[in-house]
Amino acid sequence: MSIINYASKEIQFKIVYYGPALCGKTTNLAYIHSRINPDNRGDLVSLATAADRTLFFDFLPLNAVVIKGFRTKFQLYTVPGQVIYNATRQLVLRSVDGIVFVADSQWDKMAENIESFENLEENLRKQNISFDDIPYVLQYNKRDLPNIAPPNYMEFLLNNRKKRVQSFEVVSSTGQNVFAALNAVSQLLLHKFSKESDQARPSAAAAAPAAAAASGGNHRANLPSSGLALKR
């Protein structure tokens, strides 16, 4: 869930980039970080393991949505791609608000894409999060390489649920559609929180400041919001 910081007047949303090893998650975050004004972003932090790593940073979008006097701030994370680091994947997914699933378009990576997608669903289930409730989009990455599967085949493999989601053909090394995917998942999660806030009882909203004060200034809650357009 989102984190409300009453001291800094910010609402933080967490977006996780998920996918198999070497699919381009790190390249996505590195490109986004490089294109955001340094005044509006934090440092790109890398938590390395022996063979993989987790990256994260936070940023304020150029046209940050203001929700009841609070600016929206985004935290972007990647998960390690290798299966042996599944405990780290589960940890990164805690309190997630939105997901970008990054699939490798090369034919020989299809089995890994499916395995990672099923692993994502399983790890969300362990945290009592329904895949049907979490805002997410699909990236079909590495579209500039030879021997890649056509988009309709990847749709058949990964976008075959009753409720289809937005998908993007991406070249993360050049930035093609990287921001389009981020923009899409951002709008989805903000719309979800806006809808949930409209359904929340007034008494719960009134209790939020007191709860935040008791917890040192940070509080997880839902507030009304509007769409977001990220710009490079």
Structural commentary:
The model is unreliable at 203-232 (pLDDT under 50). The chain is built from six helices and ten strands, in the order E-E-H-E-E-E-E-H-E-H-E-H-E-H-H-E. The two termini are 26 Å apart. It is α/β, with parallel strands linked by helices. It is 34% helix and 23% strand. It has helices at residues 25-35, 86-92, 110-126, 151-158, 178-199, 202-214, and strands spanning 3-5, 10-18, 45-48, 53-59, 66-67, 70-78, 98-104, 136-141, 167-169, 218-220.
In a nutshell, what does this entry contain?
By secondary structure, the chain is an alpha/beta fold. It has helices at 25-35, 86-92, 110-126, 151-158, 178-199, 202-214; strands at residues 3-5, 10-18, 45-48, 53-59, 66-67, 70-78, 98-104, 136-141, 167-169, 218-220.
